[in-house]
Write a structure and sequence with these properties.
single chain, mainly beta, 8-stranded antiparallel beta barrel, 9 strands
């Protein structure tokens, strides 16, 4: 997830060229920084249950019969899986807003990189906002924030 690309990795998980042309925020917090400006942060080693599930950048990403669901993001307790990459937590904290932020290690298509990002649930848990805060040199850029919608259970089964 160097960028939990709910599928926002250019080389590994490019949902679309437009989603991959952005740059990291110049005022990004350091790794392990609180995901929220309010409340205290707690370091975590697994993705919270509220973020787990399958998410899509577009409705078609939730249709597993399609071979072009490049905006798909599946989050388990241990990792975030994008179209062609995976992200694991390195130094991540949870915040009072139910979101998480920190550094993630990504792998995909024979490459490895790190990304600091924030994942925030919204709209009662039906939406996930992904913001890339700091990107390691050479990592695929992601324009953001990216807005994912939770996939219906019957359509998100792999």
């Amino acid at each position: 997830m160097a960028a939990l690309a709910a599928c926002g990795e250019v080389a590994p998980d490019a949902p679309s060229p437009a989603a991959e042309t952005g740059t990291a925020s110049p005022s990004a917090p350091s790794p392990g920084a609180s995901p929220s400006t309010s409340g205290s942060a707690t370091r975590i080693s697994q993705f919270p249950a509220s973020l787990q599930g399958t998410w899509g950048l577009t409705p078609n990403d939730c249709d597993r019969s399609r071979g072009d669901a490049k905006g798909i993001l599946t989050i388990t307790a241990e990792e975030a899986r994008f179209y062609e990459s995976r992200a694991r937590m390195i130094d991540v904290a949870s915040g009072a807003d139910g979101g998480i932020a920190g550094t993630f290690a990504f792998t995909g298509e024979g490459m490895e990189w790190q990304r600091t990002m924030r994942l925030t649930p919204a709209e009662g848990g039906t939406v996930l906002i992904r913001e890339d805060l700091v990107t390691e040199a050479g990592a695929p850029p992601v324009e953001g924030p990216l807005r994912y919608t939770r996939c219906p259970l019957k359509e998100s089964v792999r």
